[in-house]
Amino acid sequence: MINKTLLTSYILLLTSLYASPSWYYSLDDTKQNSYIGYGSASSEQEAKQNALVSISGQINTKIDSSLTTTKTKSSKDIQIKSSQKTKANISDYKLLKMSYEDGKYYIAIEYENIPNMQKFKNKLKEKALKPKFDNYLSEFELIRKEKRWYIKYKDVIQLLDKKDFARFFVTTPNENLTITTNKRNNILYDGDQFYFKIKSKEDGYISILTVYEDGTVSTMMKNIPIQRDTLSNIPDKDFEAIPEAGLLEVGVETYDMYVAVYSKTKLLFDRFATADDEVIEDERYKNFDELIRFIKNKQYTTIKIVTKPR
Known about the structure:
Layout: H1 4-19, E1 34-41, H2 44-58, E2 65-73, E3 78-86, E4 94-101, E5 104-112, H3 116-126, H4 136-139, E6 141-145, E7 148-153, E8 156-159, H5 162-165, E9 177-181, E10 187-189, E11 196-200, E12 204-211, E13 217-226, E14 232-234, E15 254-263, E16 273-274, H6 288-295, E17 299-308
């Protein structure tokens, strides 16, 4: 004799399978290194979230998500709570299929697990675009959106991870303007005091801005007079505040990019933070993209500097 509990479970399983769309859990991958996640729920958003959680469970990736489900058995007034949390960063996923049946959404999502920069290059290739990758500051556009960084070329846009974003931190030579530090190989250690050595082929003003590892921009020095063909120490020994190297995270090596901007007349830098602030957390000052647009029509040079813990 069949156990009633087993029979009930079997019937429920058959009912569930029968209610699902025929394509559910039966689609084929369309690309190499791709994964398909399936999700169902009473709302489209939750179904999509379940599909993303399914993908993150298949690969070693991190996605910021939290799914909490609460079920109530009113007959016994018992609440059953289950919580599943997954960390991942899944972008550029493709919605393969979605349907709404018997009060539930069914969704299938495909994710290609390759580096973001390779995705960007693939998108460019599809549109027969061939930019030069040797100068990110002049060739590409940087975009800040929803607290994330994106790279853009013409109408092609791609989310950047931390490694990709670091490509914008470069040393850019300029035959009319040079910048270096007083430290060997431009490597600093936490707490080091340092200064810049700058030479310009024209009289005018020099301003120096810092771009932190997270894309925050601050103004170190504004509109310092400079004479042509003269090596200047900025700041000099009489300057009231000498730059001091620091780390974003205690004990963790970091890097910054310093931008020296030449101008014949004084410039305004109100849109950028002031370097006097110890910690600049405000999202509006994560405006590396704005700085790139600001310097495009100006004479400038950049230097990437690594700061190490002691």
